[in-house]
């Protein structure tokens, strides 16, 4: 690809950026929390059809996925769950095929009064777009679509098959991405524009979600000593799991990538529910938890460690010793992933990065997870993860930096052109 072609594509990204932001704003405005992603998938389907892509829009059947590597349990109503894939098929097939994937699901907004502006009424100010999902990762998904648009606007078309995939459940199980693989979608490489601050994810954690179900013995609070407080018992178990977190972080010091980080394994009691009355000793408490694992760590083995930790803590508790808590696996059962055997797509991306940013991409050792794991671990498809800068993901006043988004879009467009090849439209 010569310099003139590159510049035409970059200029096309600039020319289309206002339209890109308008589409991103519309996408962010849809409150696509877990179980409510349908309107976002409708929008993506319409955008793909408008562009002439072959669209596959299907309902996800959990029974098709439950025996696949990396499947996480689904607990909510999944009857409306869908994946959407738009396929571009070239007239001339000379390049290498590509999956471009984004997720449209977002985490809950939390108390609305703690946002400066409403989370689903996106606002652009000070060079940033604010809104739930603006950073993680609706701007990246729309950026990938407009990267393809820029190639067309510059007068070219790719010479390889491209699947543009919009998935759900990235924030809780990953079964949306898993469903596309079960459906049969494959390519020579995958690219996921999660917000990475302009760095390439080199290694990422896996995640285990689990729920502690703790029983107590209710009594009037006036006689609290004769009862057993399930909430306080749950706190006893949480303290034991914090010690397990310390042990796992010590183990992480042997990992070639994560040894560079302080405390890469994070345990989080994220949801707590319990009790029925302020003047009654609570008879029950449920705590939903998340803990990370590193690449190469067995999920099954670490589930056993969690169970052993909880059982040991229960044996040292007056009430739980005879009323042991239960553990439910409530979402992610996801392995960590390290990008390997990806020299060819990384070289193609390095050329694109150098043109847009200068220099070479910096590696990111990521203490969260992405859908890249399914492609690399399940099918040996090298899966790159690179995206824009932003802040407050999963927090209040989430935002994406617009200049970084434009650069990311340019890098994606040049990468697609380099990897898939081009011919004149």
UniProtKB/TrEMBL annotation:
Q: Which UniProt keywords apply?
A: Cobalt, Hydrolase, Metal-binding, Zinc
The answer to whether UniProt assigns keyword Hydrolase to this entry is yes
The residues covered by the Peptidase M20 dimerisation domain are 204-316
Keyword Acetylation in the entry? The reply is no
**Which domain of life, per UniProt?**
Bacteria
Known cofactor(s): Zn(2+); Co(2+)
Q: Which GO terms describe its molecular function?
A: hydrolase activity; metal ion binding
Which NCBIfam families has this protein been placed in? DapE-ArgE (TIGR01910), PRK06837.1 (NF005306)
Its family remark reads: Belongs to the peptidase M20A family.
* Protein's UniProt name: ArgE/DapE family deacylase
């Amino acid at each position: 690809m010569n310099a003139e072609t590159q510049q035409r594509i970059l200029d096309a990204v600039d020319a289309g950026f206002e339209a890109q932001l308008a589409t991103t704003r519309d996408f962010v405005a849809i409150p696509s929390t877990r179980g409510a992603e349908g309107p976002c998938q409708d929008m993506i389907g319409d955008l793909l059809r408008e562009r002439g892509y072959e669209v596959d829009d299907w309902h996800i059947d959990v029974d098709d996925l439950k025996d696949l590597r990396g499947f996480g349990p689904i607990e909510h109503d999944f009857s409306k769950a869908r994946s959407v894939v738009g396929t571009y098929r070239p007239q001339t097939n000379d390049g290498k095929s590509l999956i471009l994937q984004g997720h449209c699901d977002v985490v809950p907004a939390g108390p609305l009064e703690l946002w400066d502006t409403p989370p689903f009424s996106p606002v652009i100010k000070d060079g940033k777009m604010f809104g739930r999902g603006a950073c993680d990762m609706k701007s990246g998904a729309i950026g990938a679509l407009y990267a393809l648009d820029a190639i067309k606007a510059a007068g070219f078309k790719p010479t390889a098959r491209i699947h543009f995939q919009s998935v759900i459940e990235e924030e809780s199980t990953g079964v949306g991405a898993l469903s596309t693989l079960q459906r049969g979608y494959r390519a020579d490489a995958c690219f996921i524009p999660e917000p990475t601050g302009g760095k390439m994810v080199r290694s990422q954690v896996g995640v285990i979600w689990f729920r502690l179900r703790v029983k107590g013995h209710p009594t009037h609070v006036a006689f609290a000593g004769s009862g057993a407080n399930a909430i306080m018992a749950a706190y006893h178990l949480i303290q034991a799991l914090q010690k397990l977190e310390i042990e796992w972080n010590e183990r992480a010091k042997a990992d070639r990538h994560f040894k560079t980080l302080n405390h890469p394994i994070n345990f989080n009691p994220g949801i707590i529910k319990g009790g029925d009355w302020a003047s009654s000793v609570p008879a029950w408490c449920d705590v939903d938890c998340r803990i990370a694992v590193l690449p190469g760590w067995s999920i099954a083995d670490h589930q056993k460690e969690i169970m052993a930790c909880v059982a040991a803590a229960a044996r040292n508790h007056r009430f739980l010793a005879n009323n042991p808590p239960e553990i439910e696996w409530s979402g992610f059962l996801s392995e960590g992933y390290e990008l390997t055997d990806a020299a060819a797509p990384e070289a193609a991306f390095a050329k694109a990065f150098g043109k847009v940013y200068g220099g070479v991409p910096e590696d990111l050792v990521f203490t969260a997870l992405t859908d890249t794991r399914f492609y690399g671990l399940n099918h040996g498809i090298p899966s790159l993860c690179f995206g824009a800068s932003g802040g407050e993901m999963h927090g209040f006043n989430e935002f994406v930096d617009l200049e970084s988004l434009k650069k990311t879009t340019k890098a994606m467009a040049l990468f697609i052109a380099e990897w898939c090849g081009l011919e004149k439209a």
